[in-house]
Design goal:
GO biological process, one term: methylation
Protein name: Class I SAM-dependent methyltransferase
CATH superfamily of the largest domain: Vaccinia Virus protein VP39
Radius of gyration: 24 Å
EC number: 2.1.1.-
Number of strands: 11
Pfam family, one: Methyltransf_31
Strand content: 25-35%
Number of domains: 2
Structural class: alpha/beta
CATH class of the largest domain: Alpha Beta
Order of helices and strands: HEEEHHHEHEHEEHEEHEE
Largest sheet: 8 strands, mixed
Keywords: Methyltransferase, Signal, Transferase
CATH topology of the largest domain: Rossmann fold
Number of helices: 8
Length: about 250
Amino acid sequence: MKTSSYQSTKQLFVLLLLWLFLGAGGACQAQVEQKAAIYTTKSPGTGGTGKVYMGREIARVIGTGGGGWLDRSTRQEEENSLRAIDSMMLSPQNVVADIGAGTGFYTFRVAEKIPKGKIYAVELQDAFVSALKKRSQELGLSNVEVVKGGTKSINVPDASLDLAFMVDVYHELEYPQEMLQAIHRALKPGGKLLLMEYRAEDPKVAIRELHKMTAEQVKKELEANGFKLFKREDSLPIQHFLMFERMEKK
């Protein structure tokens, strides 16, 4: 009888350990699934990837074939890019990153404003990287450094930037949360992140819907990643000008 009782107790103890182990494993699995659920999927919309972040479908990247459109002769008139640059509050010694620099339409104009500083032209697509390097050499701008970025990193030193900006780029980021965290690390304390996006609130802005964003959506996504709205300007013809300040994480 004692042996039988001992065996029963032993079996119960083993079952209890197994239950605890499976429960812990289930909790770990739930945490993994919760983390993976940062992004969800849907049927792709026009120009979309089908990948969704905080209720917004991520747009497909405009390839290097769109370089001519980025450098179109009417861009200044349509977007007033010089006004946007004046609103960046640049100082001559600032260190800046143009993320998704493309052909360098903004990079080289900003470089002229920071002669004692530096601008990183961060670009993911190899053809644009090569074009940026060639153009930088042609212009003889020693304060421009072309950087091959990643889908989750901008590949610049931590705590090095006074300002990072993205012009009609953020809505295409494959991993927006990871990129915002990378930018957060790259900014100095009090550093700024500027997003310029075509206004989704305005039906007269003739851009595909997934390549536009509302100010409310931009604010929601950035506040979730350690940024606070610092400056908003509504004077550009068709784009939002939304500058955020890097906040210290608690």
